[in-house]
Design brief:
Number of strands: 13
Oligomer: single chain
Structural class: alpha+beta
Length: 273
């Protein structure tokens, strides 16, 4: 087989959506994109279509790798291989090609997240030189909460600055201060005393939590759990989701607020280039 890559920017959006859906056919968890959700992912994750690549096998598109960049870091935001090409070396070749291109750009590291229970994907990335940084976990809450503190709205750009100042230096891409600062309403930020929270649109049934931060001097006094309870009480009747991109060490604060841990988890991985 003859392998090659072509920049994703050479293709219409509709074709890229098709390649992505083909790449995630029969995936570990069901994933399906349309043009709107694809555009949302491009904006939210800062994906660069000129750097992202389409895998070509014998002159046919057979995979896609979406790349986001910040400074000297590249993130593999998604990679999928069409079902007929799986198990034939296409994934290994493509991953090695993407990392080679990152080195040619003089990037210093490449990062990604992968479902921990998807053992074949984990082995592929480890074979390509990626190492595990930490486990990432998610949670769910049924929305029943009576405790309510007074919440104050916050600008999302200001939230991003606080995360850059006080958050972990190696947060997963989606939780970083840069990513939060790029979010727009109807997502919203809240402050409760010295705790801060970012959530998706609170007017819909399912609400996602995208950031939880407590000022360093105020940590260790239950303020993070109080913030979560206050937000849930302010928006009653919703189902709350913590995506599996939160470091495992954050788990205790969610459990104290009544969240239940999800079964699926992810590995945060990094490749030094």
């Amino acid at each position: 087989m003859d392998f090659d890559t072509v920049p994703a920017s050479n293709f219409p959006l509709a074709d890229l959506v098709q390649f992505l859906n083909q790449g995630f056919e029969d995936y570990f968890v069901p994933i399906q994109f349309n043009t709107l959700t694809f555009l949302h992912m491009l904006r939210k994750d800062g994906i660069d279509l000129t750097t992202s690549q389409v895998l070509i096998v014998d002159d046919q598109p057979c995979g896609i790798g979406l790349i986001a960049r910040r400074g000297w870091t590249s993130r593999l935001a998604a990679m999928g291989i069409a079902k007929p090409m799986r198990g034939k070396g296409a994934g290994s070749w493509f991953m090695n090609e993407l990392s080679k291109e990152a080195r040619q750009r003089e990037d210093r590291e490449m990062v990604l997240e992968v479902i921990e229970q998807n053992e074949s994907a984990v082995k592929l990335y480890q074979k390509s030189g990626f190492e595990i940084v930490r486990r990432l976990v998610g949670f769910t809450h049924d929305g029943k909460e009576e405790k309510k503190g007074e919440l104050h709205g916050m600008d999302l750009q200001e939230m991003g600055k606080l995360i850059l100042q006080h958050g972990l230096p190696d947060l997963p891409w989606q939780l970083s201060g840069e990513s939060i600062a790029q979010m727009n309403p109807p997502a919203c930020g809240y402050r409760y005393r010295q705790a801060y929270l970012v959530i998706s649109n609170p007017e819909v049934q399912h609400v996602a939590i995208w950031s939880l931060l407590v000022d360093p001097p105020a940590r260790g006094h239950g303020l993070g759990a109080d913030m979560l309870k206050s937000a849930i009480a302010q928006h009653p009747g919703k189902t709350w989701h913590v995506p599996a991109v939160f470091p495992e060490e954050f788990g205790r604060v969610f459990e104290r607020a009544g969240f239940e841990r999800d079964k699926l988890s992810q590995w945060q991985m990094k490749l030094n280039l």
